[in-house]
Amino acid sequence: xxxxxxxxxxxxxxxxxxxxxxxxxxxxxxxxxxxxxxxxxxxxxxxxxxxxxxxxxxxxxxxxxxxxxxxxxxxxxxxxxxxxxxxxxxxxxxxxxxxxxxxxxxxxxxxxxxxxxxxxxxxxxxxxxxxxxxxxxxxxxxxxxxxxxxxxxxxxxxxxxxxxxxxxxxxxxxxxxxxxxxxxxxxxxxxxxxxxxxxxxxxxxxxxxxxxxxxxxxxxxxxxxxxxxxxxxxxxxxxxxxxxxxxxxxxxxxxxxxxxxxxxxxxxxxxxxxxxxxxxxxxxxxxxxxxxxxxxxxxxxxxxxxxxxxxxxxxxxxxxxxxxxxxxxxxxxxxxxxxxxxxxxxxxxxxxxxxxxxxxxxxxxxxxxxxxxxxxxxxxxxxxxxxxxxxxxxxxxxxxxxxxxxxxxxxxxxxxxxxxxxxxxxxxxxxxxxxxxxxxxxxxxxxxxxxxxxxxxxxxxxxxxxxxxxxxxxxxxxxxxxxxxxxxxxxxxxxxxxxxxxxxxxxxxxxxxxxxxxxxxxxxxxxxxxxxxxxxxxxxxxxxxxxxxxxx
Length: 552
Hints:
alpha+beta, Threonyl-tRNA Synthetase, Chain A, domain 2, five-stranded parallel β-sheet
């Protein structure tokens, strides 16, 4: 029997070719935390994967960037198993994130309050029972026809919908007991590792509460999320009405040439929401400043431009400005703990000058506005004056717009705050969601390539810094918003697929970013391709793929 070398940090282990990876790894860390999976030659894999060649391996724990998703995804799998066994045939869905947990819904056979509470308790008890039994999770390959028959017998139509648009000879499956799922992502090999979780009743469903990677021994209270949750629930109901709630259903619409209607309906929904927000702004007579915030690639810029049009329809004369124009310049810019320039910091904005100019504009005074030369990394005054006309209203977008410090001198009753994010209701299937972060990451990657000449690997290298800035400067203030705009376009990943896949394929196995590239490619693999020519010229999607009717 031939031997292969498994390198774990500075240590090398010799194992027989074909051995399971967990035979070469310790069962737990010095802290007692179990090894959940591993990065093997820059790919996230389950511990059951056979070792066929020499490899470098990093064990993954719940505290790791790629270890924590294994823990949460494994809990989703175990939850789906419990629901399937206790309430067979019910429509179960993992929806959006709330804190570190996930909001889930079930179409209960008895929707009364007591019955739902009893059902949630029963599901939780079944999960704990499986964890106590330390059931094994196995990975296997089934012939395509056998996989179809299995999911037909189990009544898992969401899996059938996905397989209807594929034709591989074999299908990767994950099994625990009699429950099976498509092998979308690595899971733990034994559910006894999943000791800490909770099911918390929430809305008309419940939250699968998961400990965060930063504090893995605690279940934290749910964060305030009323506004976002309301918007997301509306989007869920809208998805049910149009009949496209999973990737398989979207793929079917593409094949049957119904995608045009879906695109037009999605875009019309954006217009309706924009109109409603414009109406709400105008209804508050005191508002003179509209502030638009959101994380990277949420669609803030296009939203703001289209909002300006809707405000004009309401008889307003809007002035659109960006906080980027008030950049203090590299000489005054704050630095992070490593001494690097921190462009995400709120004091990267000239706060006194910004507040002075806003107050002057709102008082009807002429102002020489600020601009920024990003080549020299310095600001300048425009050589002409700007005046806010009668019935004028300022629309300002930027990542700090909801932070009270940004416009501390402007009276609160004169401000209207809007938070923009991409909250898709579309799921890959019932227990595999499409995260807001992944949608934005793919948007940013395509835009960086198209308009900034930046390869995908650089976007992925920058993302951890972007995410840290969002966590510090954006998300703590989202609950202050007067309105939330959902910029998700439930068809967009079908359009992005050929563009993003080409970019991700440039990232090679020896690159550290290959781990993330493979994960994103796996998500896009589920989609049938949609032609970008059918996308309207003023769509938010045009901000990323190009050929927009709007100027940027």
